[in-house]
Amino acid sequence: MFACQDCSKVYNNNESLRKHCYRHHSVTQKPPPKTVKCEKCDYCGTSEEAYRKHRKRAHQEATEATGKDGYTCSVCAQQLPSIKAYVKHHSNVHENAKAVIEEKIFANETEFMAWKNSLRADNCVEFVTQYTWSTTTSKAKMMLCNRSGFCRRSGSGLRAPKISIRSEKDCTAFLTVHIYNDGRVKVEYCMEHVGHSLEMARLRMSEEEKAEISRYLEDGHETTWIIEKIRDKNSGNRLMYVTAQAVDYLRSCLHIDSGRLHTNDMASVAEAVRLDGVVDENDENAAPAWRNYFSYSPASDSSGTSFSLGLQTQEQAEWLKEFGNKGVCLDATHNSTRYSFKLITMMVLDNRQKGRPVAHFFCKEENEANLITFFNGVKDRCDIPLMPEVIMTDDAIQYWTAWIKVFGEQSTRKLLCSWHIAKNWGMKAKDLIVDANIRKEVLTSLHKLARLPDEASFRQHLAELLTRMDVARCEDFKKYFFDNYIKKEDRLMSWAPFNRRRSVVNTNMALERFHGKLKSHILKKSENRRLDFVLYGLEKFCRNLVRDVIVQDTLKTRHRQYRLYQTHKSHRKAMATYAQTQFEGIECTDQEGVYRVKSLTRPNLFHFVRQIKKCSCPYE
Fold first, then answer.
1. Which Pfam families match (predicted)?
2. How confident is the model at residue 620 (pLDDT cuts 50, 70, 90)?
């Protein structure tokens, strides 16, 4: 082996080292070549391999190509020149009776391959080709155990290295295969392993095993299902140790569920946009097809500047028309593709309070201009005016300004996600309030304030809280809280609990949960995904959601619908409670639809309840 003195990289021959020094270390003159002189003539070779070939051609010496600079004994560290010498060393010096070299002859290559495949199953061994050579009568190759040898690592070492299949020791198992011109195959081999244990999990998957997994993938099965099926079926072979990473790798190799139309990602996306909604030109009666993509703008440079692309299926557009007037949630997420694009999602909540994504938008920056492009694209695809009661976002002001420029303010209320607000309060309190006890007291009061549904109680508690901040000397946090959440009335109304009574949403958790499911189930927790793969995954998610909605509506299922379950539970309790005392506990008032209800726990307390709409649940 030849090592560079500057960077310590190792090469198999001196010529490779010379080229490396000349290219990477600004060496103006190449180092003088290493010469190997022949003991029987005046020949001077540049490497040991050239000298070996010279001895074989000029002096008819029987030499064996090593392909590496010898073998190191894993027991005594002695250097051996060849694999055969290494096997004999273990047999003679270390008295390993199984370290013997055997020989077989096969009539043809088919018989040899059948025998070699049987070794894999019976002896738990995999052989890989180390090097090849040829003569006038045959072609030969040296095959070593796949666990034998050392791992050459590259890179700067910033990431944790992957676990190598190599054992970091030389193994005695080998095959020397000679395929003669007449078709016969001669094999010299040793089946004894040294320096590592026999582990089925360390074997490579065969083509038959890959084909079995591929069949399940082509049938459309999920990774988890495939792993469970294969492990139940193959309890004693290599497929028992198959991992989700291996299955997903085969999925990517077969381009299953990838949406790939071109090897170049951006060219594939452009082709998908071009083919979107294309109908048969020869069919005069064909109706215009729905176009899933909108507001497409290709990137102007490699960083993705000016790129934008919207996605909305026909089912999502119908959901927006049906549920959009109750409320709309907006949020963005990052790391959904290998590019620095933001994925902005618009979501509505159905009658079961379950989130349904109704539009997606990829863009470089989450600014007002891109949001206006997104909203205009959605507006053009809706046949009816979109006037939601509330619009909920995080603390980014550009969502609201872009919304009112496209749809108009009308009667829509802007609400901030209460979870994001509480998170911001906690982060700022940690920075601005040093005393832990005071910080805990202030945050507790803030959380109580954010849950007061009555406006009078809210404003009274707010004034008391500001006074307590003065007494506790929390001037910095009070200034932050007043300037960002109280000073402007519209800002106060965006988070005040009395302004969001009867609103369909209080947090953006349904949207956050969708983004989490996107990254874990669709993207498989990988940030290095092609954009066409993400688009295909979003469309597939929508198709599956459509089927789930049909099943729930048809079977009237209530599984995993907590809020609906609580509503029905309260209704049943009220019906049972007031069944016998309906006229005593509930009284009509002079106002239509307003009732006077007696408290169950406090006899002298009465509640005035207004009927908003007739209950349509099955427990009426």
1. ZSWIM1-3_RNaseH-like
2. very low
